[in-house]
Each structure stands twice: as C-alpha cells, then as structure tokens.
Amino acid sequence: MKKVLITGAAGxxxxxxxxxxxxxxxxxxxxxxxxxxxxxxxxxxxxxPHFEFxxxxxxxxxxxxxxxxxxxxFASPASPIDYLKIPIQTLKVGSLGTHNLxxxxxxxxxxxxxxxxxxxxxxxxxHPQSEDYYGxxxxxGPRGVYDEAxxxxxxxxxxxxxxxxxxxxxxxxxxxxxxxxxLNDGRVIPAFMGQAxxxxxxxxxxxxxxxxxxxxxxxxxxxxxxxxxxxxVYPVNIGNPHEITIKSFAEEIIRLTGTKTKIVYKExxxxxxxxxxxxxxxxxxxxxxxxxxxxxEGMKKTFDFFKSLxxxxxxxxxxxDFSRYINN
Length: 328
Ligand SMILES: NC(=O)c1ccc[n+]([C@@H]2O[C@H](COP(=O)([O-])OP(=O)(O)OC[C@H]3O[C@@H](n4cnc5c(N)ncnc54)[C@H](O)[C@@H]3O)[C@@H](O)[C@H]2O)c1
Known about the structure:
Helices cover 37% and strands 16% of the residues. By secondary structure, the chain is α/β, with parallel strands linked by helices. It has one domain (3-324): NAD(P)-binding Rossmann-like Domain (Rossmann fold, 3-Layer(aba) Sandwich). The strands form four sheets. The protein has a seven-stranded parallel sheet with strand order 3-2-1-4-5-6-11, sandwiched between helices. A two-stranded parallel sheet has the order 7-10.
C-alpha cells in the first residue's frame, strides 16, 4: 500500500487531504501538534484501518518507521490572527519544520509536496499573479513572519531538489474555504458567517473595495493531488480566479444567510493586500485543473457546516489558546 505522511493533518486543509488520500486507497499517517488544529477534524478517522495519527511538533526531529512514498507538508499557522499571535512558531515551522521534513523525504526517498501560499506575492504590484512574479513583501511588517517563512520554505525545497535530486512539488495556495474552518480564525468567510449566525453586523476593513477570490476546498484538494502526481517541480498556483470585492461579498453573505444585520466599516490592517487573484493558466495547462465549484454552492456547504456548530462554539469569543506552546 502506498504510504503518505500529512503534516498539519488536524487543520482545515490537512484533514481534507487525509480524507482524499484515504479515498484514493493510500495508507495515511497524520501528524499535528494541534497548535491551530483541532482533534475534532480527524474524529471520523479514529477507527479507520488505514489511518494513524502521531501528535508531534514538526520543528523537532521527525521520525517515521517503515517506508514512505509521499509527504505533504501542510503544518503551519495559516490565518493572520494565528501567525500574529505566534510569530516565532510560524517562522520555525516554515524553516526548521520544512528542513526536518525534507530530511525525512531524503531518507525515505519519498516525494514531498510543500504548502506555499499566495502570500509569497505579498501586496502584489501585478494582477493577476502568475508564478513568475517575484512578489512585493515587507520583510519586517507584521505579516512578514508568515510570508518570509513560506518564501524560505520554497527556497529550501528547491535547494533539496537541485542539490540532492529530491522529488519536490510546491503548491501556492490561494484563499481556500469550506467546512472545518475555524469560526474565530480571523479569515473573512468564517468571520462573516459567524457574525451572521450570531445576528451581529458584518465587519468590513477599509472601504471594502479590496478584492479576494475564494476556492472551495474540494477543488483545492483535487489540484494539490494532481500536482503531487505530476512531474513539475516549480511552484504552481492553485486557487479560484473569480474576484469579488469584500463589500459585495458581505452583501452576498447577507443574502445567503438571511441575516437582518448590516455592514460596518473599520480601519484596514497593516499590509493587508488590496487585490489577490491567481493566474491559473499553468495549472490548467499542466494539470488540466480548474475550479469547478461555484461560490454559491461552496458558500452554502460552508454555511451548513457553521450552522451545525453548537451554540457554545458559536459564541466562544476567545481565540485559540496558544499559551501552552509559547515556550516551545
Ligand atoms: N487555507 C488557506 O486558504 C491557505 C492558503 C494558503 C496557504 N495555506 C497553507 O496550507 C496549510 C494548511 O492551512 P490551513 O488553512 O489548513 O490551516 P490550519 O491552521 O487549519 O492547519 C494547520 C495545521 O498545522 C498544525 N501545525 C502548525 N504548526 C505545527 C507544528 N510545528 N507541528 C505540527 N503541526 C503544526 C496546526 O495545529 C494545524 O492543525 C498551511 O501551510 C498554510 O500556510 C492555506
């Protein structure tokens, strides 16, 4: 049986990747330290005969027994609220964590796919962003901890490919959404849906004319799978190019949820990108991939997930407690 190690398995994308690889007939080892993830995301796999879980911080030496065919390195805080609270862990998981996993891949002769991000383009000066754009990142801005960790991660991965001949893949993920996102992670979709469900006003930062594009998780996971199985070693954008302004999106959420609340405007955070849109020509050509799930369908599925949360979860105001990880 082909064996895959997925780091960040208890997170949003990691847990969906576990499902995908199990469905494709793989033996899956999930690894996570739960710093931003949740045990609940893997609960349904608890007794799966082809799934095992290792609780481990990937910034520490990673040991896997037996053979390994593939590694997907998805461990990393991913939302601004998380990485602004745990900036050093964010830098460490992108650098030391990636180094450890590249080491495992080399030792096992496994192919490794690294989760990069549209944040490597920073506040982009070209639109849409294609893979040959080098980006516009403020190294010392608050978001630099995430953006630069991911940029370093890409460099390290290419060095292992060039120097050691390792089989590497790099996916640059653009905003992805779907069930199992955390309600309080600060990303716009759970934020709006949570506010709508609690009957609160929807908060838009800035004038709301900044644009975003959102990719439904099933599309994202398919793209990642195809990239892993391809022969292409350079970064590939996977995301949905359909842009919408945050203001129009807030209006869409108001319609979808039927909430009677209104939009309120607050000051734009530092280095919040004004526009983000993937150029997915490469993924189309190389992987014959493009997103298939429209926003209406995807948002409905996501809203159904948030609606199913308990009242307690919906009203839990504090964000994830990172205190037990701070001295790691
Ligand atoms: N969701 C998106 O839209 C998006 C966009 C771009 C890139 N990405 C990338 O995809 C990956 C997953 O993102 P997500 O949205 O699922 O975030 P998430 O926070 O839901 O999942 C990340 C997981 O990694 C785990 N983790 C973090 N540090 C760890 C460590 N040191 N050791 C072990 N586990 C650790 C967390 O506990 C969590 O379960 C990240 O690498 C992120 O940068 C996501």
